[in-house]
């Protein structure tokens, strides 16, 4: 069974997200709403990582080696400025959506295994992660025209 | 001075108890006997009292309430009776000013407007119109907002337009949209005539809308008085009359409302039939509020469980309820989420759309409703949905411009973001009309820094020199109420006409004329090469606006200047179906949530994430109201060791905004001459502070020094009125917004003025002398003021 790998992937990515949101919050604290919302979304990822913990432990032995994660390449460190902010939100969006894809896949596996706990965890993650993703999209959209078109003085 | 009553001493006047209906009482105040009376309405708060302007020899000499007006039945409050004297003030701006060699100097209109046009064109050339921002008001007339909206959206095509309404009324609009699909107040002031219970939530109505409060006082003095629940951290005039007063901690509005809803649902005092037929989301709401039993609410909010139960009993069993909501909710943590819980209360009990049942998501300013309707804030005119192509196309057709000219490709930029773009340098011209951000915005040191930026070209359009004009590159002298004709709409959708009574002073021009002039000089054209804006008078602008509202919730098509001048206030919608206006919206329980009708697809209450059209389609509420819950999120700044107290800011009965008008009335000024800091008896004892001592209040963002006023507030909390700035006293730092935070509600984007962490300390005696004010007189004055 490879399911443990996917569980581990989601679990680790979720933990990475806790930090990633914090990094972006700190780098762009001049954009007050970004700072505050990123901190809120970081706390959501924290909760999701926590509810994942028991399932991750249960499937621990299925997991032989650490999977590759998007967070390894994206968002190593955040940058300053409005273009950088757009790029950072974009990176967060990709990571968050990585979680969503993994979750969809996991939920299928969980359903096939009739693992109710796993399915319930997946649903919770899906719900909150979708909210994270929507916020990132909304915020990118509102920043895009000004960032792309208007020159800095 | 000839006055029917002394409204300074006796704010609400003698009681005229209900006899079936609300009796007429005409309040009047004149300096001389007028030659004529001119029809108008008051612009000193959102109540919209009908009034006549007394004129003699071309000057305003007084006002009187209009007896036949549906809003006030002749009454006026202290601001309405006194503030008209500002029109005659000798320090009105009468000529345009242009900054030359660092100083503002008189100029001609041609010079001023040409400079603005040249700057606009230069910026557009380099950065498109995304380099331009407009920050307007809640105090112009609807004809002016609509003109500004059209020139911004179809002329320039910039999404950067908002009003100071973002600070006062944005959450009202947002909460109505969340629950009912569009803006628009469901109820009517007449609901107060019969209602069994009233909820005032974060709304010190007795001080803000004094005439509306008279209506309630007269109910209390008549047969079958209503029960009143007040939710407010302070012991206000309003709270004094409460059957139950819930004095909560700052930032805990959501837990308290969740607690009340939970008790009501638990007790079964809900209208299951109504919920089933007309709402969606009940089960989720129930789940969220069920986590808030009274004991937990008490722990978080400080409201005793017993009191919460009493409040829930009143609100859960009354046969009719009127709820009013204002800044205590809008300007605090989770503003939209908390305001929505009031809508939920009415929805789950089916108390909406009929006599005695109303929700007033109050506005602060007299014409704020029109800023929202006409597209001078972030919204599209006529409550259209900028995410709905069909709606945008309607406007493109009406204005005869290409669809993509109208900035629907980006969410409208809210005021806080406009200021941020100006700060970061990508908005290069900021045109401020009818508002004074250098006193009213949060975190003033930051606002001053932005206004001072060399690369930001600042245009300020106002009637007086203000703390903001000081930083302008161009100042345009504006005509105000009484000097121009136009219409405006109050909280219960009543539209009044205000006729021009006198000429403006010097070369001052109406905001309408200024916007039309700009539009002409910019040569905005439609698709066929005709001038984009073809109206030249207020009445023509009103006719154009009517066309824009056809078929929308705020339908004005049944009104005309003639009809508005015959009577005294008409509620929208006014059209073929409702030729005399409609008291209630949603009488049939069908809301504006249909996908083709709604003003927005909605937002996540916690993050502000926008719901997409696709997602909305899936939900398809099709006319059902949304019941949306939210769990508690603690405020971002809370008292700690360094800043151990909560600050909250607010208003006092004698002043409006930054006192540009009310501060020029000697009587209003004398009644409330200066700011103060209100602290509890306990904190006064702890810090060794006596009444009138000068106290320095410090936050992470700034400092103010104010005389102390002791009592009437919970321990741990300090209150400072926000009206006082520097135009008439720059001897000390005293504007409350020196202390407040830059942050805002995720949905409505309204900034939070109702909490910040501060410390207090007593000024040294030496400082007291420097301030040069006699403590004794100050103490006396303070005593006259509200506790
Ligand atoms: S209640 Fe408001 S509108 Fe009425 S007189 Fe007072 S300030 Fe004016």
From TrEMBL, chain A:
Top-level taxon of origin: Bacteria
Protein name: Molybdopterin oxidoreductase
Source organism (scientific name): Ginsengibacter hankyongi
TrEMBL record, chain B:
GO BP term, example: cellular respiration
Record GO terms (molecular function): 4 iron, 4 sulfur cluster binding; metal ion binding; molybdopterin cofactor binding; oxidoreductase activity
Coiled coil: none
CDD domains attached to this UniProt entry: MopB_CT_Fdh-Nap-like, MopB_Nitrate-R-NapA-like
Transmembrane segments: none
Keyword Nucleotide-binding: no
Gene3D superfamilies in UniProt: 2.40.40.20, 3.40.50.740, ADC-like domains, Dimethylsulfoxide Reductase, domain 2
Highest rank taxon of the organism: Bacteria
UniProtKB keywords: 4Fe-4S, Iron, Iron-sulfur, Metal-binding
InterPro entries: Asp_de-COase-like_dom_sf (IPR009010), MoPterin_dinucl-bd_dom (IPR006657), Mopterin_OxRdtase (IPR006656), Mopterin_OxRdtase_4Fe-4S_dom (IPR006963), Prok_molybdopt-oxidoreductase (IPR050123)
Domain 4Fe-4S Mo/W bis-MGD-type: start-end pairs: 35-91
One Pfam match: Molybdop_Fe4S4
Name assigned to this protein: Molybdopterin-dependent oxidoreductase
Organism: Ginsengibacter hankyongi
């Amino acid at each position: 069974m490879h399911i443990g790998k996917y569980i581990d992937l989601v679990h680790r990515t979720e933990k990475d997200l806790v930090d990633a949101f914090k990094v972006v919050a700190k780098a762009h604290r001049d954009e007050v709403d970004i700072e505050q919302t990123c901190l809120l979304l970081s706390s959501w990822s924290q909760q999701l990582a926590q509810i994942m913990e028991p399932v991750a432990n249960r499937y621990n032995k299925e997991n032989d080696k650490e999977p590759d994660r998007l967070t390894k390449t994206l968002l190593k460190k955040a940058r300053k400025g409005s273009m950088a902010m757009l790029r950072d939100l974009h990176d967060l969006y990709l990571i968050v959506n990585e979680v969503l894809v993994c979750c969809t896949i996991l939920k299928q596996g969980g359903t096939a295994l009739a693992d109710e706990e796993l399915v319930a965890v997946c649903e919770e993650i899906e719900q909150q992660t979708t909210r994270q993703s929507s916020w990132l999209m909304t915020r990118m959209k509102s920043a895009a025209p000004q960032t792309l078109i208007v020159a800095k003085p | 001075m000839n006055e029917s009553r002394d409204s300074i001493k006796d704010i609400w006047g003698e009681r005229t108890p209900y006899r079936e209906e609300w009796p007429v009482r005409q309040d009047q105040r004149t300096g001389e006997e007028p030659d004529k009376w001119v029809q108008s309405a008051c612009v000193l708060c959102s109540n919209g009292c009908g009034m006549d302007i007394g004129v003699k020899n071309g000057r305003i000499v007084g006002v009187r309430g209009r007896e036949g007006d549906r809003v006030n039945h002749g009454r006026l409050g202290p601001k309405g009776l006194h503030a008209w004297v500002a029109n005659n003030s000798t320090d009105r701006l009468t000529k345009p000013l242009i900054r030359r060699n660092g100083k503002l100097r008189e100029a001609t209109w041609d010079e001023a407007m040409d400079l603005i046009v040249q700057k606009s064109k230069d910026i557009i050339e380099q950065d498109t119109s995304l380099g331009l921002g407009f920050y307007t008001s809640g105090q112009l007339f609807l004809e002016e907002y609509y003109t500004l909206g059209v020139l911004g959206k179809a002329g320039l095509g910039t999404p950067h337009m908002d009003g100071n309404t973002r600070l006062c009324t944005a959450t009202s609009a947002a909460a109505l949209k969340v629950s009912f699909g569009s803006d628009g107040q469901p109820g009517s002031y007449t609901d107060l005539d019969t209602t069994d219970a009233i909820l005032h939530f974060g709304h010190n109505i007795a001080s803000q809308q004094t005439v509306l409060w008279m209506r309630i006082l007269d109910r209390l003095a008549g047969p079958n008085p209503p029960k009143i629940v007040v939710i407010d951290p302070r012991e206000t005039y309003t709270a004094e009359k409460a059957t139950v007063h819930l004095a909560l901690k700052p930032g805990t509005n959501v837990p308290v409302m969740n607690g009340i809803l939970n008790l009501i649902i638990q007790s079964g005092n809900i209208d299951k039939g109504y919920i089933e037929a007309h709402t969606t989301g009940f089960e989720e709401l129930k789940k969220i509020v069920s986590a808030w039993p009274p004991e937990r609410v008490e722990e978080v909010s400080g409201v005793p469980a017993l009191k919460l139960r009493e409040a829930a009993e009143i609100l859960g069993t009354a046969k009719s309820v009127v709820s009013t909501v204002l800044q205590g909710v809008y300007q605090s943590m989770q503003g939209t989420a908390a305001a929505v819980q009031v809508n939920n209360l009415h929805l789950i009990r089916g108390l909406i759309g009929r006599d005695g049942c109303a929700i007033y998501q109050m506005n602060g300013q007299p014409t704020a409703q029109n800023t929202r309707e006409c597209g001078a804030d972030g919204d599209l005119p006529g409550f259209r949905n900028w995410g709905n192509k069909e709606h945008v196309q309607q406007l493109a057709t009406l204005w005869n411009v290409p669809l993509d000219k109208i900035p629907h490709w980006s969410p409208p930029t809210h005021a806080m973001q406009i200021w941020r773009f100006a700060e970061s340098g990508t908005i290069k011209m900021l045109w401020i009309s009818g508002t004074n951000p250098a006193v009213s915005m949060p975190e003033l040191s930051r606002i001053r820094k932005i206004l001072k930026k060399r690369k930001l070209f600042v245009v300020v359009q106002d009637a007086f020199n203000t703390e903001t004009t000081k930083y302008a590159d161009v100042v345009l002298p504006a005509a105000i109420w009484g000097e121009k004709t136009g219409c405006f709409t109050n909280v219960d959708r009543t539209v009044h006409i205000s006729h021009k009574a006198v000429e403006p002073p010097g070369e001052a021009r109406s905001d309408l004329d200024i916007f039309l002039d700009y539009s002409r000089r910019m040569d905005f054209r439609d698709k066929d090469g005709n001038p984009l804006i073809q109206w030249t008078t207020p009445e023509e602008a009103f006719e154009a606006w009517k066309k824009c509202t056809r078929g929308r919730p705020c339908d004005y098509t049944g009104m005309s200047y003639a009809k508005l001048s015959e009577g005294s206030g008409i509620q929208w919608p006014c059209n073929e179906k409702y030729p005399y206006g409609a008291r209630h919206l949603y009488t049939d329980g069908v809301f504006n949530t249909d996908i083709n009708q709604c003003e927005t697809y909605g937002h996540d209450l916690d993050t502000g994430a926008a719901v997409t059209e696709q997602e909305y389609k899936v939900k398809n509420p099709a006319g059902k109201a949304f019941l949306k819950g939210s769990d508690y999120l603690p405020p971002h700044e809370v008292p700690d060791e360094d800043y151990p107290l909560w600050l909250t800011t607010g208003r006092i009965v004698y002043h409006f905004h930054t006192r540009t008008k009310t501060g020029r009335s000697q009587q209003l000024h004398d009644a409330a001459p200066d700011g103060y800091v209100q602290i509890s008896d306990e904190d006064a004892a702890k810090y060794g502070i006596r009444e009138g001592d000068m106290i320095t209040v410090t936050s992470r963002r700034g400092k103010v020094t104010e005389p102390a006023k002791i009592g009437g507030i919970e321990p741990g909390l300090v209150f400072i009125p926000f009206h006082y700035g520097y135009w008439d006293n720059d001897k000390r730092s005293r504007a409350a917004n020196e202390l407040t935070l830059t942050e805002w509600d995720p949905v409505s984007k309204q900034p939070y003025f109702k909490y910040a962490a501060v410390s207090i300390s007593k000024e040294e005696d030496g400082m007291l002398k420097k301030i040069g004010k006699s403590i004794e007189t100050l103490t006396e004055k303070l005593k006259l003021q509200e506790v």
